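debug: dumping io for the single-chain case to check the tokenizer round-trip. Nothing else runs in this session.
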Amino acid sequence: MKAPDFDYLRPSTLSDALALLARADGDAMPLAGGQSLMPMMNFRVASPSALVDLADLAELRGIHRDGDFIRIGAMTRYAELATSAEVMSALPLFGMALPHIAHDAIRNRGTLGGTIALGDPAAEMPALALALGARIEVAGPEGTRLIAADDFYLGYYETARATDELIVAIHYPVAKGDDRFGFHELTQRHGDYALAGAVVARTAQGHRVAFFGVADRPLRLPALEQALNANTDAHAALHHLSGIAFTGDVKANAATRKRLAAVALTRALQGMTP
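debug: decoded output
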């Protein structure tokens, strides 16, 4: 298969990119790393009339610490994150999750903003954004706004970003000394999308637990988090998994995914950083 015909547009500034998206009236798509979008186009899952390549937009790059938050530009690649001492120190979960994202070739091209924007329910980074309580900075014709990760994912590949908006950066709270984190995913082969995964962040505010690969979006279960905050036995807390509408496919049916989610969460809790 090959992609349908499309116009290729390569703006040099953020304002030019936003103007191109607005002019297309929802029929153009931003191109970040392209590691998910191009295969989707080749299989005709996506068929935009134009691609707006963001590669030249310096405004979308960079890693900056600002007090209790670290701001990561949307066009920052996975490989850059993995080699950033500042990111590894401020966000221990990144060090746990990045080695599980696909393979070197993908990590060398794939971008943080691209995976956050796509919202693949089986991808790691959207779930990390949820577990960490990240804020997603988007720019559009009306200016810039911040969207809490909790409000960003609405359904299967559906997000709160409008078609004429671009993700500019993601803001993550910096880990404090007493914070603890856990991550585990189950795949058929290393580098595959997760059949089920769990991300755990325990801070002074309590537990935040995000699941991925199990439903139509990355999601949290407040009832399960409350049980963990109350020091409920982790095994007993698993009954709250019934609050997830598990999806099934040729790789795993809904019942299997529920079981795998329980395993992923148990191992993430057991492997939390001391």
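debug: round-trip ok. The first strand starts at residue 7 and ends at 9.
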